[in-house]
Amino acid sequence: MGVHLANRWKSRIHLTAGTNDTCLIFTVEDPSGDMNLLPTFYPEDPFKLRAVPPRDVLQATTKAFLQQAIERCDVNHEECKLNRNACFLPTRLIDVREENVVRLVAGSTIISSGGDSSSSAWKYAALSYCWGPKSHAEYQLKTTVDNLDAHFTEIPMDTMPPLLQDAIYTTRELGVPFLWIDSLCIIQGDKQDWDREAGTMHKVYGSAYITICPTQSKSCKSGFLRRDPPSISLPYRSSSGKPVGTYNIRYHRSWIWKMYFYVSGHPFSQDLISGSWIRRGWTFQEAALSSRMVLFGAAAAHFQCQRSRVTEGESFETPVEISELALFPLLPNTLAEDNLDSAWKHIVSSYSQRKFTQSEDAIVALAGLARRFHSFQGTDEYCSGMWLSHLHEQLLWRSAEYEGSPWASWTQLLDPQMPEKVRVFAPSWSWIHQKKVEYQYLKDSLFPRRPDDSSSNSQEEHSGMSTAAFPGLTGETLGLVWRLPDNDNTAAGHFIQWRGQELEITGLTARFPLANADRPLHIDNSAEVNTNLFWKWTISNQYFCHTNWDFLNFGYWDRADKGDFQRLRMLLLSSGSGERPDAPTPGSATADNNNSEAMGVGACTLILPTHPPAEISSGGEESQKAEQNDRAAFGLFLFPAGGESEDGKFYRVGTWYSLSEGKGGLANFKRYATAETLVLI
Predict the structure, then answer these.
(1) Where do the structural domains in the chain lie, given as residue ranges?
(2) Which member of 112, 431, 580, 620 lies 3.0 to 4.6 Å from 397 by CB, making a disulfide possible if both were Cys?
C-alpha cells in the first residue's frame, strides 16, 4: 500500500490496496472541521473546497432542502407527474402514520376508505436499496405466509434491520403516509405472489410519490442516516519542521469500477459510483422507472426528477439529459422513435454490468423497464432482452468483460454450460448470459475515432457507450420468425420468462474458411476492455474479417479444437457504410421505419423485407453494385446444437464484421454465401 501527500495543504492522499480495480480515497479536513478539500487525481485539476457533510444525514437543513425540492417539482414540473398514476396503489403498503406503530395495509383498503386520489392521503414512497450478501440478507425482516396476518396488525420495529428503520423514519419526516419495501410488501417464498408483484414493478416505482435511495448502504444491516466515516488525525509541520497543528484525514470513498473513473467530480456522481447501490441489479430499473428520487450519499443528499437534479448545499438545478443513461438510468416520460434503439443499447450495456445474488433475477429485474419501453413504441415485441424491429442490430452485441476475468476455462467456441443455460434460462442469442456487453464497436468499425475528434469525450471512450448519432445498419436477412414456447400464452409471459424462445432466420450463410485463413491476430486497442475475445483474420495476408467470440480466449488458440471452426456458420444479419456519416443509411430508423412488413402468426412474429437488402439505389445495376462494394457486413457465428445439426438448430458463439477492404466486405461475402434457414436457440 502506498501513500502520497501533495505539497499544498497536504491535501491529496491516494492509497492503492494492491489490486487493479480498487483504490481508497481520503479527504483532508481543515483544523476547524467545517471544510474539507476534495481529492484530485491529476495535477492540472483544481482543488475543490467543500463543506464537511454533516454526520446527521437528515438534519433540519437537509430536511428543509428536500421538502423544498419536492414542492418545487410538484408546482413547476408537469412532466414529472405523467407516469405517476394517481389511481394506482400497490397491493400492500406499510402504514407509517402512527409514530410508534407500523403495519401493513392493503392498497385496496386505502382506496375504499375514500378521499381524493390527488391528495396526500394516497401518496407513498418506495425504497430502492441493497439487501446485501447472503449472510446479511438472512437477517432481513420478511413478510411470509406465516406472519402475513400478524404484519397487518403490527410490524415490530425492533425486529427490523437498521436500513428499514431509517427508511420508515425518512418517510415520516418527509410527510409521506405510506412506504413500499419489497421484503415486507411482497410475500417472500410465495412464487405466485412474487410473480404477480414482480410484474407490477413499473407501476410501483413509476407511481411512487418519491423513491428513497441510500446510495452508500451496502446491505439491510447498514443504516443511512448517520455519516461516521473512519478518520485519523495527522500532525502538520511547517517547512522548517516545526509543529503547526493537526489535520483530520477522513475516508471519502472507494472506487471500484474502471468504467466510472472518468465521470464528473460532482458530489452526485461521486456518491453514485462509490456506493454499492449502483452495482445492484434490481436498483437499475427502480431508478429508471421512478419519476423522482431522494438520494442519501456520503457527500450530500440529492433530489432528482425527470427535469433536473439539485444537490444539498447548491442553489442551482442541473438539467437531466438522456445521455446520462450510462451512469444513472432515469428515463424521460417519452422517447422519440429514432432514439429508442440507441437508448436501449445504452441500457443493455450498463445493466449487463449489474450484480445479482440470484442470476436468474436479471430477467425479471428488467421486465418493468421493458414494459415502459413497450409503451413508447406500441406494436414492437420484446424478444429476450431485445426489440423485434431492431434485431438486425441488437443481436450484434459483443462481450466486453473487463481485465481480470477468469479465462482459464475459456478454451472452446461453445461454452460447455450453454446447452443447460438455454434449457432452463434463456436462448444463447440473448446478452443476458454475459457480465458486460457493448454495441459501440458497430459505430467505431464504420466511423473510426480520431485523436482530434472533438465529438468524443472521456466518459464515452471508457464506458463504451457513445451518445453521438449513428445512422444505423441495414437489415440483410431474407426472413425472420420469432417463436415463443407453447406454454407462453400470456401477454406478460415473455417479459419475465425467456426460456424456450427461438429465432428462425432465413438468410445468407457461409462456412468459416479456416483452411484458407492465416493465423488469427489479437486485437489490442483498448486500455479498459479485455480484448482477448476480439480477433482479426486475413487470407493470404489480405484482410478478411474481425471476430468477437462470446467464450474463446485468444490465449488458447493453439489448444482450441480446429474441427469446431469447420462446423461454424457465418450468418449475415446487416450491412452498413461509413462513407456518408452525415446521411441516414437506408433501412435505418431515421431513413425508413417502414422497410418491413410484420405479420403475427399465433405465438410467432414474422418479418419479411419489402425490398432486396442493401439494394436501395435507384441508379441502376452498376450503381447498386458500387454501393454494395463499399458496404461492410455484420453477422453472427453459429455452432450446431448437435452432430451436423440435422434439425437445423444452432447456438450463438460470437459476432463478426467484415469491412470493405481486401477480401472483406458485403459484396465479397455474398459471392460465396448461400441462402439457408437456421433456427437459433
Answers:
(1) 8-53+225-259, 60-221+261-351, 397-450+461-680
(2) 431
Global model pTM greater than 0.90: no
Is-contact 445 665, C-beta < 8 A? Answer: no
CB of 349 within 8 A of CB of 129? no
In tens, the pLDDT along 191-221 reads: 999 989 988 998 999 999 999 999 988 899 9
| Nearest-angstrom CA–CA distance, 253 and 272 | 10
Q: Measured between alpha carbons, how far is residue 401 from residues 284, 407, 433, 553, 607 in Å? A: 19, 11, 12, 12, 33
Residue 611: what pLDDT?
Answer: 36
Buried residues in 275-296 as b, exposed as e (16+ CB within 10 A): bbbbbbbbbbbbbbbbbbbbbb
**Cβ atoms of 487 and 610 closer than 8 Å:** no
The partner residues of 680 in beta bridges, in order of sequence, read 503, 650
pLDDT of residue 260 exceeding 50? no
The alpha-helical segments, DSSP class H, found in 378-470 are: 391-394, 418-424, 440-446, 458-463
Q: How many helices (H) and strands (E) does the chain have?
A: 20, 31
CA dist., res. 426 & res. 140, Å (int): 30
Secondary structure class of 368 (helix, strand, coil): helix
DSSP state letter for 499: T
Contacts of 201 (CB under 8 A, 6+ apart): 285, 286, 289, 367, 368
| Phi, then psi, of 597 in degrees rounded to 5 | -110, 125
Q: Cα–Cα distance between 512 and 528 in angstroms, integer?
A: 30
Sign of CA dihedral 418, 421, 426, 432: negative
